[in-house]
């Protein structure tokens, strides 16, 4: 019975570490750019857009579709970076074990 208690205690410690890390990562921001830096997007670890910067030069050509594509590319890349960072750091703590409901 002692081994089972040890396993449960270790699982609780790991869950607390994962929870704390997830909260920390959700508060971080992740940045990406597109169009040679003409569009920059900043997202949180929760995949929320926190900032968007558009260089005025991106507006000079009047190509709205290109600007839309640049915005989507920057936002999607920042979100990808945030997801990969969360997955990588959570996996490092959990030893690669995917725990349901944690991440």
UniProtKB/TrEMBL annotation:
GO cellular component: bacterial nucleoid; cytosol
Localization annotation: Cytoplasm, Nucleoid
Parts forming coiled coils: 4-31
A GO molecular-function annotation: DNA binding
InterPro entries: YbaB-like_sf, YbaB/EbfC
Keyword Ribosomal protein assigned: no
Protein function: Binds to DNA and alters its conformation. May be involved in regulation of gene expression, nucleoid organization and DNA protection.
Subunit structure: Homodimer.
NCBIfam families per record: DNA_YbaB_EbfC (TIGR00103)
Name by which UniProt lists this protein: Nucleoid-associated protein DESPIGER_2263
């Amino acid at each position: 019975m002692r081994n089972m208690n040890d396993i449960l205690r270790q699982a609780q410690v790991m869950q607390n570490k994962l929870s704390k890390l997830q909260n920390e990562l959700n508060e971080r921001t992740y940045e990406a750019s597109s169009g040679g830096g003409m569009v920059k997007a900043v997202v949180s670890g929760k995949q929320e857009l926190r900032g968007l910067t558009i260089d005025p030069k991106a507006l000079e050509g009047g190509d709205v579709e290109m600007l839309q594509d640049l915005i989507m590319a920057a936002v999607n890349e920042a979100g990808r970076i945030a997801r990969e960072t969360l997955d990588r750091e959570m996996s490092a703590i959990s030893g690669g074990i995917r725990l349901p409901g944690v991440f």
